[in-house]
Design goal:
Layout (H helix, E strand, L loop, with lengths): L1 H24 L43 E4 L5 H9 L7 E4 L1 H39 L1
């Protein structure tokens, strides 16, 4: 009797091992087209765009400092009158500046020069840009 059970145990062991392997591997043995996702081809598009034009800000406005002018004429200058009576003074009207007035005038002129330099550099930038654009068009 034992000899009859032994072959039966072996076959049932084989079946049991087969079922365990089948259970562990699952559906991987069968394979499926659903497992591989569909890949779309990559489309590369190159767009050539002109870079935006830089518009530099305008320079600061000229803010002049007031200059006080003093007119040197016969009413204001006694020495001038004395020289005029003697005939040594010219009949021209003379203008004079105080030290602060001269500094203010000098500051104003420096501001005018700065403003002109900045405006000319902006003008040069746009001329160079225009030359580059015209060269690219040709």
């Amino acid at each position: 009797m034992i000899s009859k059970l032994l072959p039966m145990k072996r076959s049932s062991m084989k079946i049991l091992i087969f079922l365990i392997l089948l259970l562990v591997s699952g559906c991987s043995i069968l394979g499926s087209s659903r497992d591989i996702p569909e890949v779309k081809p990559v489309e590369v598009v190159t767009v050539v765009q002109k870079a935006p034009t830089y518009h530099p800000p305008l320079p600061n406005q000229i803010d002049p400092v007031p200059v006080e002018w003093t007119v040197l004429n016969p009413d204001l200058m006694q020495t001038y009158l004395d020289d005029l009576k003697e005939g040594n003074a010219p009949t021209n009207v003379w203008y004079g500046l105080t030290t602060k007035g001269y500094e203010n005038l000098s500051t104003n002129m420096a501001e005018v020069k700065r403003y002109l330099r900045q405006v000319l550099s902006i003008l040069k930038y746009y001329r160079d840009l225009d030359e580059e654009v015209s060269n690219e068009d040709q």
